[in-house]
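Query protein
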Amino acid sequence: MAKSAAASRERVARNFIRRYGRVKFRRLLDALGRSESGQVIADEFGVSRERVRQWKNAFGTVITMYQLDPVVEHMLNERRMA
């Protein structure tokens, strides 16, 4: 990550903590980690969904993963053993 991007993330985080406190910062990060609705988060903090989106982008990265169903995984493994 570029140094300026890291500095920007830190600045946004420090501003958030200054305004809302560390407990609310943890609450926000937990909500983002659980993929709570941006509107629900926005309502809780009294901000727009756009601000929540900006926080989300500043504080982390969304990772999407595809995981096979265990039944399909089992079928795949059976095929390999045959």
Summary: Residues 1-82 form one domain. The two ends are 46 Å apart (CA to CA). DSSP finds five helices and no strands in the chain.
